[in-house]
């Protein structure tokens, strides 16, 4: 599974079934491979947004 960010929305694409699946906590854990079960879906998505919006280092 892959987490996809399209137009200010998160989507999860299941590569085995070749279709988009529901943005549930279980699917989110599978897409990002997070091993912390204490994080909520909102906390995970906020961390992903911080990572996406962080300035990149130019080389």
Report what the structure shows.
The protein has 59 residues and is of the alpha+beta class. It has one domain (2-53). Helix content is 36%, strand content 24%. The protein is built from two helices and three strands. It has helices at residues 25-32, 41-53; strands at 2-6, 9-14, 19-21. It has a three-stranded antiparallel sheet. Strand 1 (2-6) and strand 2 (9-14) form a beta hairpin. The longest helix has 13 residues, at 41-53. The protein starts with a strand and ends in a 6-residue tail after the last helix. The model has no long low-confidence stretch (mean pLDDT 86).
Order of helices and strands: EEEHH
Mean pLDDT: 86
Regarding quaternary structure, what we see is single chain
Order of the strands making up the biggest sheet: 1-2-3
How far apart the termini lie comes to: 31 Å
Given the C-alpha coordinates, what overall shape results? globular
Radius of gyration: 12 Å
Task: Tell me the number of strands.
Answer: 3
State the helical fraction. 25-40%
Q: In DSSP terms, counting alpha (H) and pi (I) runs of 4 or more, how many helices?
A: 2
What percentage of the residues does DSSP assign to strands (E)? 15-25%
Q: Outline the biggest β-sheet.
A: 3 strands, antiparallel
Question: Which consecutive residue ranges, at least 5 long each, have pLDDT under 50?
Answer: none
